[in-house]
Amino acid sequence: MPSSGSPLATGSVPTSSVPTTASGRRRWWVLLVLAATQLIVVLDGTIVNIALPAAQTELGLSDTQRQWVVTAYALAFGALLLLGGRIADYWGRKRTYLVGMVGFGLASAFGGIAQSGTELIIARGLQGVFAALMAPAALALLTVTFPGGRDRNTAFAVFGTVAGAGAAVGLVLGGVLTEFADWRWCLLVNVPFVIVAFVAGVLLVRESRAEGDNRYDWWGAVTVILGLGSLVYGFTLAEGGWGSLDTIAFLAIGVLLLVVFVLIERRVAQPLLPLRIVVDRVRGGAFLIQAITGSVMIGAMLYLTFHLQIVLGFPPLEAGLASLPMTAAIMITAPIATRLLPAIGPRPLLIGGPLIGAAGLLYLSRITADGDYFVQVLPALIVLGIGMAMVFVPLQNLALAGVAPHDAGAASATANAMMQIGGSIGLSVFTTLYASVAGAQVVTDSASQLAAFTAGYSIAFASAAIGLVIASIIAIVFIRGKKDELLPPAGAEGAVHLG
């Protein structure tokens, strides 16, 4: 464990557990199961994007409801992740993982048979609730299964790559299902995945939990859930104007509740989010970068699907396939970044990766209504994929390095929550900017309407690029220390009870 002066000092909580970990081939099968879980969770953040035009037509969704089909999932997921992480720590990570998996499958089935926009939004919210149980449990299980060394770097590289590629895979799969089956299968497809992952989890994953006196911080849970919800809803209302009373009120209430949450966490004996997890300079920087990354992968990518289908006229399958080059770039770059990580450390990757991604988004912001995909979109997706791979490989590892075993669930929940809340806020901000720019255009015919849409999409991409530049600056300021201090050493073990 790093000393108190190191970049990753945590103030660990002692535990009487005997350290044991899954060994040999078994733990690589565990990695496969947990990575598949992460794929399902991330994929569902975007798989409905391609299906939204079809779902909007069939169910008569308003534009606001269309946005909330995406936001409901990300918001419920992000707002409940801290509580889900603590439930995983205290109740048992395997048990929490399996319950989350079952609930996620049932919510997906409900969404697949939804008969109204309200039912679909509720189903997406329920998916987020159970994902908030499943995801932190999976990441905490990964942390204790691979406690340190080269195997941990490999495991987190696989996990991070799946997390990064999952959003793009969701777009492709959503296009295939929408065009050849029905948009409802973008939700129903989760059911067979859940069944397989549940059975594999029962057979392969061993139980682990935090030992000691574990009490739930209910007041902390209430304030952070309501605070994040109010904040995201306030950003959503900003589409009608930043100066409106409702927008200002919800944003102010959200900030106030989050301040109260911090005060509660400083005083309670068993906090929902031990502040030692986030006040560490390096880990706090990693969390901020994750929030910005989430805004890009969840928020900005939604407008890419709209541009492909609405402006360029791609059918769902072609729109999904058109996003595949970004996935390919991530998959090709990730192994290279994995080999570089122990040699150069995470800092150069987290400084350079966002800048490369920002260059791709700036290029994408130059789209025109009559532009060509191969000239205006394809190069940008390749560059963006390269940059994102350089971020994904070290980010999850860095966000959890040096965390005491007692806090593994809370730390992994915070890592996921930052991604989802960042995506929710990013989507709300991008929607507001899109509406303000597109609404200011003079529309006289279908051609000018497409030009107005394109202008709105362009501002969303440019704003996302600015966000990635800020992420690079955050890495320069916060991600400091020798590479051996920033990454767990070979053979490092966490005192965690397994089995």
TrEMBL record:
It is found in: Cell membrane. Residues 1-20 are annotated as: Disordered. It is a multi-pass membrane protein. Residues 9-20 have a biased composition (Low complexity). Residues 30-483 form the Major facilitator superfamily (MFS) profile domain. CDD domains: MFS_MMR_MDR_like. Gene3D superfamilies: MFS general substrate transporter like domains, Multidrug resistance protein D. Keywords: Cell membrane, Membrane, Transmembrane, Transmembrane helix, Transport. It comes from the Bacteria. InterPro entries: EmrB-like, MFS, MFS_dom, MFS_trans_sf, Sugar_transporter_CS. One of its GO terms (cellular component) is plasma membrane. The chain crosses the membrane at residues 28-55, 67-85, 97-115, 121-144, 156-177, 183-204, 216-235, 247-264, 285-306, 318-337, 349-367, 373-393, 425-443, 455-479. One of its GO terms (molecular function) is transmembrane transporter activity. This is DHA2 family efflux MFS transporter permease subunit. It comes from Agromyces atrinae. The lineage of its organism: Bacteria, Bacillati, Actinomycetota, Actinomycetes, Micrococcales.
